[in-house]
Amino acid sequence: MNIALHDRLATAKKLARDAGALALSYQERLRRNDLVIIEKGVQDFVSEADQTTERLIRDELARQHPEDGFLGEETGSCLHGQGVWVVDPIDGTNNYLRQHRHWCVSIAYVVDGEPLLGVIYDPSNDELFSALIGQGAYLNDCRLHADHGNADRVRIVNLGYSAKTELQHYLRTIERLFEQGIDHRRHGSAALGLAHVAAGRFDGYMEAFINAWDIMAGVIIVREAGLWVELQTRPGGYAIRAGVPALAPILV
């Protein structure tokens, strides 16, 4: 494996932890109602913590890997480079702002549209999920080994919903899951949802529209855990289905 990818993975792991610690420090200001929050759209917020955390990641990546491009949720993009870092500094901002635990830092390195490495850090639980193409997926230092199971053992799926898609499509998916005896959750962080699929905490994940920065790290982590991932391009983003193979005919 190219030593440069190993170096980038090490960089991403450290940056994810540093960014997570910074985001946690901002929650003290959140508790004092002293954090700047901007509403970008319906149920779409950005805070000073998101912006500062992304700048930390972007500046350090530019210093260590100036040959690479960058795509971030909050600070825009510079897509010219050997590869592109795709970053969500706080995935699950709504959860973060309400002090729920389901949020994370997501960092991926993408070449020609394919993620080659991914890191997702959950600061609330000090869990770092990571993967490098061809090298497996890990939770902290433990390798993840997916249990494909069978249709009778599929019991819980994580779903995402975007206002950019039809509500009826989302509701029909829930109906199909219930018809098969499968429960669901909606935790509001695609990156963390995918990480939990790789760790076997969910059997699958689906969202009909999602941005690249929300999923690229999760895509390679799920793949390297040995599970199924399907991406379809959409104007401005993607649709994603992932999980155990038995879910393929259900998550449509």
TrEMBL record:
Top EC group: hydrolase
EC number(s) per entry: 3.1.3.25
Catalytic reaction(s) noted: a myo-inositol phosphate + H2O = myo-inositol + phosphate
Record carries keyword Ribonucleoprotein: no
Cofactor entry: Mg(2+)
Entry annotated with the keyword Magnesium: yes
Swiss-Prot/TrEMBL keywords: Hydrolase, Magnesium, Metal-binding
Any Pfam family hit: Inositol_P
Database matches in InterPro entries: IMPase, Inositol_monoP_metal-BS, Inositol_monophosphatase-like, Inositol_monophosphatase_SuhB
Family classification: Belongs to the inositol monophosphatase superfamily.
Protein name: Inositol-1-monophosphatase
Organism field: Polaromonas jejuensis
